[in-house]
Amino acid sequence: MYKNLMLLCLCLLLISINAGCKSNDSYAESLSDEQTDIAVEQTGLPVDETALDPMEIEHFYYIPAITNDVLHNITTGDENGLNIDLNDPDIWGKIHTGPYPFEAGDSDYDFPYFRKTSDIVNGQGSLNIESFFSSSEYNSNNWLSGGRSTATTTIAYRLELFSGTTIKGMAGSFVSFQKNGDIFEKLPTIVEGPFVTELYSDNPTTLNIVWRTDELCTGQVKFGEYVFDDGSNVPKTLHSVPIDNLVPDAEYVYNVTSEAQDGRTVVSNTYKVRTAPPKGQGDIKFVYTSDSYDTSGGGERNYLGCNMDVLRDVTANAFRDGAEYMIFGGDLIKGMTVNKEDMIVQYRAWKQIVSGFWHTRPIYPGMGNHEFLYNLFDGYVAMDKWPYDTDSSEVVFAQEFYNPKNGPETSDPRRPSYEENVYHFQHGPVLNISVNTTYWVSMKFGDYSESPQFGGAPFGYIMEDQLSWIEETLETAEDDNSIKFIFIFTHCPILPYMTHVEDSMWWNGNNNIKAQTRKLNTETQEYEIQPESLGIIDVRDRLLTAVTKSTKVAAIFTSHEHGYHRTLISKYTPVYTDGSTNPNFNNATWHIMCGGGGSGFNGESLDSTPWKPQRITSHTGYVMLETKGDKVGMKFIGGLAREVLDDLDDLMAIKYAK
Fold first, then answer.
1. Residue 521: exposed, middle, or buried by beta-carbon count in 10 A (0-12, 13-18, 19+)?
2. Would the pLDDT of 124 be above 60?
3. Using an 8 Å Cβ cutoff, are 642 and 336 in contact?
């Protein structure tokens, strides 16, 4: 009854629109039959939750130790330091403090170094600061004589939190301050960034500087000899300032200043940044890794849903190795939650961990299955959270990161946007393409095979609109002489070989796995769940056909499995359950899976697939890429000592092999 009434109302609306446009109006066009069908089909949600009962639950899967608001609930203190109130008398633990950045101005890579500890009792504690002023023993930042850099005096603090006998976990942030007589007073604080964003050869004369403050502030950037602001002079907490008229491939220094409405100010450290080279020019170095959510072992291996221990090590080593940017294939955080704030506090912890790299060199993350924010129903059925324009996995990811906005438009406007989760950018001769293989996910915990029965997409699926965009992007790049090498990065493995042979883009070879959408059946005039035309193996084959049609794709980077493996994709690679090959995979390409960011290790699934990698290991680490003329070399740098565990002199050599 309701559906028929809704259809009737829509038809009346269409009639009134046509009636209101006179035939002699130049803009008056009646809707074609096809357009009318689309208008009818695209009403309501593209999933069907009507047969499901919502689970009334505030948290699921992972509960962060603290919220953002409580983490920054710091007030002016006393002669010893600043006070923090965790709003829960059952909380106890420790507070560790240290100057931030440690020896600011001495190292190009910012990091905290904790030196003093105090107690949390009944949910309250004091951040010890006085020790760093009263004793030369702790005066590493030379605060007694004015400091080492432009940075406002700032403390990093780390909380170890317990409730009764339960370990809640670790959390931390920064707070800037001034000393007024004997009393320490809080200042507005840069709690995120500043980060270098939009630094690429698509426009090498511009970039953006982004940072977040804990109070409403105006902001400006001193970049080289000039000062820039966002042009609004409106106080805010998230600041994004465009920088222009730059020289490509040149070094600059910058810092940021934020001013609160009462005149108190905070100034960042000063950083060196190099602009991108013009398209097609220069030799470059960059890194790829993924999967950095928490794991067993305690301590920093569980820092607000992240494995800080490994992620921090990976980014610091990539910085030391000279990487100019990082691409990250998803599963940044534990995530997979019903609560948007739980997701955001984890995202911000991840950004805090990698900030030493990101202050001067950009990071481009993609989405994984743990970047999944969902509505949960009885039977543990989870569907991408709606309203999609405010709460979906995709839109929250876009709100928290700063990726290019040049991905495809959705063919069905009812679905979530691809903005900032599917994109491409060029750096020198390298085109980087982010593909989302965990888009618009629906799943049933415990039985992934039933994932899309109420609408949505299974892990590994690529919808037609994104698939067409990939094909078009590769075709355009083939004719672009400024592009020598193409790297595609995504989350789900094309050729899994560890724990995810039962999903990803393989699903044990089951081509019946498809995305499904709630659409109108024009014969019955009833809405129903309808499958996409392509099965998961069809999608994989179409992607690989486009990839191997290109002469420029050096590798497809994937993740999802926690380790590393490298597999050749060619017309001789067995890719079907019967061991047969695909003759359309013409230009051989490497599939490099690197989930080395710190999530718990996986072992290989022996003899579980028709293909077998050329190299496999379960170590953490990252892939370093370096172009030299017409060659691009690859090294997997892994293990505790960050040794070279796999390397190829030229990823492109297989293109010419007979």
1. exposed
2. yes
3. no
Q: What is the per-residue pLDDT for 42? A: 53
Report the SS3 class of residue 489. strand
Instruction: Tell me how far apart the alpha carbons of residues 314 and 322 are, in angstroms, rounded to a whole number.
Output: 13
Q: Reduced to 3 states, what is the DSSP secondary structure of residue 34? A: helix
Q: Which helix (H) or strand (E) holds 423?
A: strand 423-427
CATH topology of domain 285-655: Purple Acid Phosphatase; chain A, domain 2 (3.60.21)
For helices 340-353 and 393-400, the axis angle rounded to 10 degrees is: 40
How many angstroms separate the CA atoms of 323 and 36, rounded?
52
Residue 188: asked if its preceding bond is cis (omega within 30°), the reply is: no
- Where b means 16+ CB within 10 Å and e means fewer, 7-41 reads beeeeeebeeeeeeeeeeeeeeeeeeeeeeeeebb
Residue 456: closest CA among 472, 439, 468: 439
Sequence-distant (≥ 6) Cβ neighbours of residue 515 within 8 angstroms: 440, 452, 456, 457, 458, 461, 463, 531, 532
The arithmetic mean of pLDDT across residues 149-168, rounded, is 93
CB contact at 8 A, 270 and 194: no
- For residues 446 and 437, give the distance between their C-alpha atoms in angstroms, rounded to a whole number: 20
The Cα 338–Cα 346 span in angstroms is 13
Rounded-to-integer distance, Cα 648 and Cα 534, Å: 35
Q: How far, in Å, CA of 171 to CA of 154, rounded?
A: 17
Q: How many CB atoms lie within 10 A of CB 122?
A: 12
The percent of residues in the chain predicted with pLDDT above 70, rounded, is 93
Domain ranges in the chain are 73-188, 285-655
Q: Using N-to-C axis directions, what is the helix angle for 464-478 and 536-549, rounded to 10°?
A: 10
End-to-end CA gap in the chain: 65
Q: Which residues contact 572 (CB under 8 A, 6 or more apart)?
A: 581
The per-residue pLDDT for 447 is: 79
Mean pLDDT over residues 445-457, rounded?
A: 80
